[in-house]
Amino acid sequence: MGVRLFSLRSLAAACLVVVASSASAGLFDDEEARRAILDLRQRIDAVKQEKQQDRTETDKKISEANQRAADDATQLRRSILDLQNQLEVMRADIAKLRGQNEQLARDLSESQRRIKDTSTALEDRLRKFEPLTVTVDGKEFLADPSEKREYEANLALFRKGDFPAASNGFVDFLNRNPQTGYKASALFWLGNAQYANKDCKSAMVNFRNLIALAPNHVHAAEAMLTIANCQSEAKETKAARKTLEDIIATYPTTDAANAAKDRLGRLK
After folding, report:
1. If phi over 0 gives left and psi between -120 and 50 gives alpha, with beta otherwise, what is residue 218?
2. pTM for the full predicted model
3. pLDDT at 26 over 60
4. C-alpha closest to that of 165 among 173, 174, 155, 157
5. Contact by Cβ (8 Å): 267, 241
6. What is the pLDDT of residues 115-153, one digit of tens each?
7. What are phi and psi of 142, to 5 degrees?
8. What gap in Å lies between CA 167 and CA 198, rounded to an integer?
9. Residue 206 CA: distances (Å) to CA of 143, 150, 199, 202, 254
10. At what angle do helices 237-250 and 220-233 cross, to 10 degrees?
11. Given this model, what pLDDT does residue 84 score?
12. Are 211 and 224 in contact (CB under 8 A)?
């Protein structure tokens, strides 16, 4: 634009020089002067028009550039908003996953606790059925936990003085557990419960079963002494004497043997 302005000015100056020269020399008449001025005006108008076109083209390019910049800015804002939305979605997903992980951790902990509780309960239940090593009246043997509980419950009834309940309990116990390791001891306490109930006939049967089963049982001599008592109470003096003599001969070092000697001296 500067170059074109310079050209315009140069052209105008040149025309003025030509006009001035013509006037001074008398070479041009009025018609020629008018044509020169018109030509000069046309040239000036052409330059102005060209200049205006250039300005319009420049403004158009600037406007287009501004529009493109505005469009780019709008697109950039949209992209930023999209990214922000995506970030929010990702944050929500991460929070959801974190919550799910925490719930899974709680569920796993709860499952582990339940498994442990179930395992402990199962072990406790199995332990109730596992045979136990017990020692009763000097004899060691294996017994089911249920046998042990039932035997001890019946013995507790006897020691409490509930002889009918103890007698019935030991009878049921021996019927359900004919091969139990408690058998000899159960026969002894059953016989004593029956004797306390004045059922000497049943008591003697069970005491004799004890002696036949375990003649060296710790209560065998005592069982024989109770048999002798039953015989004496039934006025079976001869049988009672024989039983007492057998006690002294078979179990000479026991308290039952000493008691048998004393009773023999008083037996008539």
Report:
1. alpha
2. 0.55
3. no
4. 157
5. yes
6. 777 756 654 554 556 899 999 999 999 999 999 999 999
7. -95, 140
8. 12
9. 22, 19, 11, 6, 21
10. 160
11. 83
12. yes
